[in-house]
Amino acid sequence: MGKVLKIDFVGAGNLAWSLAPALENAGASVRNIYSRNINNAQKLANKLYEGQAKADLDFSGTGADIILIAVSDDAIEEVAKEIILSDDIIIAHTSGSKALSTLGYLATPNIGVFYPLQTFTKNQQVNFEETPILIEGDNKLTTENLIQLAKILSGNVSIISSLQRQQLHVAAVFANNFTNWMLSHSEEILQAANFDLTIMQPILEQSIAKAMQFGPKNAQTGPAKRGDFEVLDTQMELLESQPEKQEIYKLVSQQILDYYQTQLDE
């Protein structure tokens, strides 16, 4: 058995709430939790065997091997400016959109990124074994230690650059965040007709399965793909009293129409 890594956290939000217990369950020692709101830090610490809330950003004497910064993107740079570290500690942020250089304010040379490509909500269990974890390190020591940490959680660990990670994050926004927002519009339309969103679960699961098996463009169906203008016009009329939804419907339908018409013309 390898060395038990000692991990501290800066941040006690959705990501830390999932990641800290998962790391502990996988064999890491998760100890100090800092949050600007000490109550949030204490709540997370209470979930951990060795966890304790920390009231300040002085991590110079905690004995941690790795500090994970799990805060909002706009707070990472502020943390990097204020945190106090020991000389040899490894510190990594967990953002998909922020470059490694965001930690450039730190005195330590051992900076990195530990990015789980997943969506996180408090008290919602995450399957980390299948979650891709993307690693970037400023030197060999940092990279190797972050890989070691990632591999106790996941069987899908890769080393990528800041640019690659940022591209992945944009792709995830389309695949995850935008899809979820479309579902919120679908739910409102369903509720107006006295339906529940659960009626969409079978078609959603089938759509994702087909997209993953055949590719999204090959799996596309619907009136815009067929060029069925009668249905498109009827549905636009149904959305007449909901201009926000009508605008989205028109924009996305036009993109689909344009793409598949181009394919027919080639």
TrEMBL record:
Domain DUF2520: 132-256
Name this protein carries in UniProt: DUF2520 domain-containing protein
Domain Pyrroline-5-carboxylate reductase catalytic N-terminal: from-to ranges: 6-92
InterPro entries the record matches: 6-PGluconate_DH-like_C_sf (IPR008927), DUF2520 (IPR018931), NAD(P)-bd_dom_sf (IPR036291), P5C_Rdtase_cat_N (IPR028939), TM1727-like_C_sf (IPR037108)
Pfam family, one: DUF2520
Species in which this protein is naturally found: hydrothermal vent metagenome
